[in-house]
Amino acid sequence: MTDPTPVDPAKDAAARAAVALVENGMKLGLGTGSTAKIFVDRLAERVHAEGMDLRLASTSKATADQARALGLVVEELDDLGWLDLTIDGADEVDPDLNLIKGGGAAHLREKIVATASDRMVVVADGGKVVDMLGKFKLPVEVIPFGWESTRTHIERVLTDLGMEGRPVVLRQKDGKPVITDEANYILDLALEEIHDAPRLARALNAIAGVVEHGLFLNICQLAIIGRPDGTVVELLREDIE
Ligand SMILES: O=C(CO)[C@H](O)[C@H](O)COP(=O)(O)O
């Protein structure tokens, strides 16, 4: 049965441009979220049309299921070793190509896969481009054991960094905690503005119950931003450095 959801033309434009970056024989990481989903659809079309030979690893069970349903073979990351390229979405992209990710609760695997790749390329619509990270609530994956203590630690870190009183909220669905693919919880931090993302990242990583936060700093090399008219704008890291 075909998916009745209309395809967002901006996301579709970004996804199509990203598919053009894929070369035969590549080891490729597949992202998670609605834009990554369109990318996987378009990738499957090209693989079948051209008989491409790719080796694929996924950042989530959801994407692996989608890819397999489209006739693609998805392997374990550890069977592939290092990847040539990962294509993924993002919740926010700043002018230095730093990102917030994890809106789909997949940022832990997404970061493992992206940082095990020669190149990470983001596909997104223009609504994701921001001057400063932080409007999108920063997802932090935490161990369920002692999660309320971990939340207290995070609140103290925010106070130390001048962000006292910012809400730190357990992500829930239907009144129950959202459970990640790694069986953890997500805390969403409503920060509004992140002035020193590296310092915040270091402080969060130092808390015992924190598994991983959704700040992707110096990981993305290229952002392909789709527009509703079907064109794209490419933001390149080497233009910034
Ligand atoms: O980080 C992610 C999932 O954890 C997604 O890449 C991010 O939420 C963007 O998703 P979408 O393309 O649906 O806006």
From TrEMBL:
It comes from Paracoccus laeviglucosivorans. It catalyses: aldehydo-D-ribose 5-phosphate = D-ribulose 5-phosphate. Homodimer. Belongs to the ribose 5-phosphate isomerase family. One of its GO terms (molecular function) is ribose-5-phosphate isomerase activity. Keywords: Isomerase. CDD domains: RPI_A (cd01398). InterPro entries: NagB/RpiA_transferase-like, Ribose-5P_isomerase, Ribose5P_isomerase_typA_subgr, Ribose5P_isomerase_type_A. This is Ribose-5-phosphate isomerase A. Substrate binds at residues 32-35, 88-91, 101-104, 128. Transmembrane segments: none annotated. Its EC number is 5.3.1.6. Catalyzes the reversible conversion of ribose-5-phosphate to ribulose 5-phosphate. GO terms for biological process: pentose-phosphate shunt, non-oxidative branch. Pathway: Carbohydrate degradation; pentose phosphate pathway; D-ribose 5-phosphate from D-ribulose 5-phosphate (non-oxidative stage): step 1/1.
